[in-house]
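We treat protein structure as text, and this decision shapes the records that our systems exchange. This encoding replaces a full spatial description with a residue-level series of whole-number codes. Below, we set out a record of this kind in full and without editing:
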Amino acid sequence: MRGAISAGTLALVFLLAAEASAATIHGNVFEWHSLEPLNNVVIDVNSTPPQRVVSRDGAYSFELPPGTYSLRAEFYENGELKYVSEDRLRIQGEGRFIYDLILLPPLEGLDGTLDATELEPTLEANDFAAPQPATTWTPEKFREFLFWAVLAILVLSAFVEQAALLKFLAEEKEKFLRWQRQRAELIEQEHAKPVVSPAERQAIASEAGQSPALDAYAREVLDTLRRCGNRLTQKELRDKLPSVSEAKISLIVSELESMGRVKKIKQGRGNIVVLREGN
């Protein structure tokens, strides 16, 4: 009888020692895309004996003694497996540790290791977040990954847009330089032409027995004078030829006067243009 009591006491001592050295692993279960907590996730751990819990309010918790475990979480929707996660944990000491799970579409899961000896136990479960293994996706790491990915895309887009802008500016600069060269050539050609005054042109035409050549604007001025009784003020002439500027009208009238085709009579602040006979 005394031996049975001693054996029972010894077993109780071992059981209490095992429970005293157990670690509490708890955390939240998140959906990978929205990072929202998931309810009704079935979570299994291959402890001895095996344990299974169903997440409530997106949370779970296990009591595990030191050892290495496989933690598998499955989420079903309409009877079909929608998300899954499988992680490996290594517990080497007692305490309370947070280990969040991110469930992905049913592909090969990500493995991670939780080394309890590297963490300091806490009295309150929510006061300390256990560091996650480098290969484990936590919500914080996933958000950080998204941030850097978006930043990289924005930087790449900026470089592409800058390259396109530099190319456009180079093409516009080349067009401008080409226009400047063409303009300089035209100016040089104009300067190379001999300048002949209206009187000289008239003298040359008289020597050749020909009438001086008139441009289209001069002919239009003469035709307008003929239609209006061979006499108009210079202002009236300008009003009847709106396509010709005031300065151009003055030059044409002066040239026609030097050729003897019209006569200019000063009247107040203006001029009367009279078509000479025979024109």
